[in-house]
Amino acid sequence: MGNNNINVLGAAAAIVKGMGVTLKEMMSPTVTEFYPEEPPKFEERYRGAHVLERDENGMEKCVACFLCAAACPANCIYIEAAENTDQVRISGGERYAKVYNIDYNRCIFCGYCVEACPTDAITHGHGFEVASYNTSTLIKRKEDMLVPVPAGAKPPVIAQEAAAGH
Question: What CATH number does domain 50-150 carry, 3.60.40.10, 3.30.70.3270, 3.50.30.30, 3.40.50.10490?
Answer without folding.
Answer: 3.30.70.3270
